[in-house]
Amino acid sequence: MKKSLYILSFVFLVSLLFAGAAFAQSSTPPTDDQVNAVAHKLYCPVCESTPLDVCPTDACKDWREQIRTMLAEGKSEAEILTYFEDQYGARVLAEPPKKGFYWLVYLLPPALILAGAVILFRSMKAWTTVKADAPNPVEATSAKKDDYVARLEEELKKQK
Predict the structure, then answer these.
(1) What is the pLDDT of residue 144?
(2) Between 20 and 30 A from 98 (CA), which of 15, 18, 59, 149?
(3) Taking the CB of residue 53, how many other CB atoms lie within 10 A of it?
(4) pLDDT value at position 28?
């Protein structure tokens, strides 16, 4: 009795191992939406700056079929993107990889924006501060006005 229980447990555990492999395989072929989700992350090898999911060329149709086949084989999106990057280089990826020289794509624009903001802030601050040795424009205008009013009054007294 005990021996048959061990054998039955062993058979059950082994069947669970094979059941996992059976569930991992997809019985339905990948849909167009699944293929396009991966294809959207790749660029056409022939056209310039055209995503693979909307490009009508024969090369792109072949690539989409290759993606469909790879998805049917159970490959993940990351594995498919890595395959295309290895075959054709990083230029086919819609988003540059975050490694090596490509880090500049991610770091340079924010650094330039920050540097521009600092320069703009300092320039605005310099334009709005009054320098101590510069004459006050309000005082210069009022002094000219007082001189003008005094001469005008003097002229008016002479005419009376």
Answers:
(1) 67
(2) 59
(3) 21
(4) 78
- pLDDT < 50 regions, the chain: 26
Q: Are residues 61 and 132 located together in one domain of the fold? A: no
List the structure tokens of 15. Answer: 């069947």
For 61-83, give the DSSP string. Answer: HHHHHHHHHHHHTT--HHHHHHH
In total, how many domains does the chain have? 2
One domain, residues 110 and 31: no
Given a contact cutoff of 8 angstroms between Cβ atoms, the answer to whether 89 and 42 are in contact is no
For residue 43, the cross-strand partners are 51
Same-domain check for residues 6 and 83: yes
In DSSP terms, 93 is beta-bridged to: 42
Is residue 75 domain-shared with residue 121, that is, in the same domain?
no
pTM for the predicted model, two decimal places: 0.53
Report pLDDT for 67. 92
Residue that finishes a domain, picked among 52, 72, 95:
95
Single out the residue of 69, 63, 83 nearest to residue 26, CA to CA.
69
* Radius of gyration, CA atoms only, the chain: 38
What's the CA gap between 87 and 93, in Å, rounded? Answer: 11
Separation between Cα atoms, residue 27 and residue 74, nearest integer Å: 10
